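Risk register update: the risk of archive-format incompatibility is retired. Evidence:
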Amino acid sequence: MHWVAAVMSHQDRRVDMSPNPSASTQSRQVRRVTAFRRLAEPIWPFAFRGLLPVLGLILVALFGVTRFASAWIEDSVRSSVSAALADAGATWAELEVSGQHVTISGSVPTAAAAEVALNAARTATCPTWVGELVCATIVRDDFLTPPRDAPDAEVEAGVSPAVDQREAAERCEERLAEVMSGTQIQFTSGSASIAASSSDLLDRIAAIAAECPGRIRIEGHTDSTGNPEANMALSAQRAEAVRRALGERGVSTDRLEAVGFGQTSPIATNGTPAGRALNRRIEFHLPISGN
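Archived output:
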């Protein structure tokens, strides 16, 4: 607290009743009054208050360039990435951390296990001042042994590679059946010329077929309209047209087999237009799956 003085003037006018005519008829007396009031002093002078943000930035910068900050970051990254690897089942992985750079090493069991470990390290998050953020900016691998394919690991575990391949073939057939569900490859009536409207469907089929194991059998089927021998030939020609179309889209034609079944394997009645439309179809099967 400090005191402030304020000077106030007060005038008091009086009338002189003296008989002396030369004297002033009025006299003026001035009284000065001094008052004091108390004002609150600032806790911090203005100059020091203005420096507080600057001092805060300096402290943050000092924290960032010190070894303490680097060690704190590395400890956080190491702890979070190690937990992510453990959750992913990558207990074999060894971790090396430098700042926010992570290197995973160790004797990797399979290629799939290596990918799981790398993905876990890339997606691990660390707590920060602004919330959870991805820990590692760079993730490298330095495996002691090259990753082995999953079938080799399954052989060591007593699982037959043929069983695994059959399961893969069945999954592939299911995917091809799904993409064909509710639709068909369209041909010009009475011919083996594929309609342009089926181009996108063939693109999707080719993408799946390229990932399938082993050989793929392309089956052509017709309805019962017309001569059975002619239908058999037409179904084979249509299957061959699909084989060539998939080959143009990058699928090895050595893995594709075209077969015509004509009208011998209907899936619906040939007594209605809707049934005949269902019987005119192309199917895909992988012989290894038992079909």
